[in-house]
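Friendly challenge for the regulars: who can give me the structure tokens for this chain first? No prize, just bragging rights.
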Amino acid sequence: MAAHPGDKAYDDAETTRLRTIIAPIVENAQLYLEDVNISVAGTERTVHVVVDLPEDQTGGVSLDAIAELSHRLGDAIDDQTDARPYTLDVSSPGLNRPLTEPRQWKRNLGRIIKVKLHHSEVVVGRLQEVGEDAVVLVPDLPRKKGTKPKTGDPVRIKYSDIKRATVEVDFSQSAAGEEA
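First reply, four minutes later:
Bragging rights claimed.
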């Protein structure tokens, strides 16, 4: 029996095929391909593409870069796929996405990170260092309103001890000490 749209085997094969079309275009745009997936709802098919900046760059992917990439990807997909209609959704990862790969940690050096450990402890601090098997955070200590912030001693956390880690929004100051 042949695989049909909506079947896991079909979706996996189609995603792999699309990834081979998409990856070189994303790389040529000097971006990093985070994810490609296809969702099917009835006759509607949506191709979701998530891109990010390379690990050695800070900031986010600009809307102009997303728009240009969407145009290029749409053209390439139209040229190399079947005639079934689809919606193309190109985006960058949201701020609340969990940090799961070392490259994501490196992109967030200097930012405030919230780390939930497997034993339910939570550590919040500025990301100071990213290593092969661990990260180092400098925690902010509790303070009285109106006093200058104080930092604690650096805390080394192994990746294997991390249950979930996310970037926290920091409106006070950027890592470079400039007003946000």
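Confidence is low (pLDDT under 50) at residues 174-180. The chain is about 25% helix and 30% strand. Your move, everyone else.
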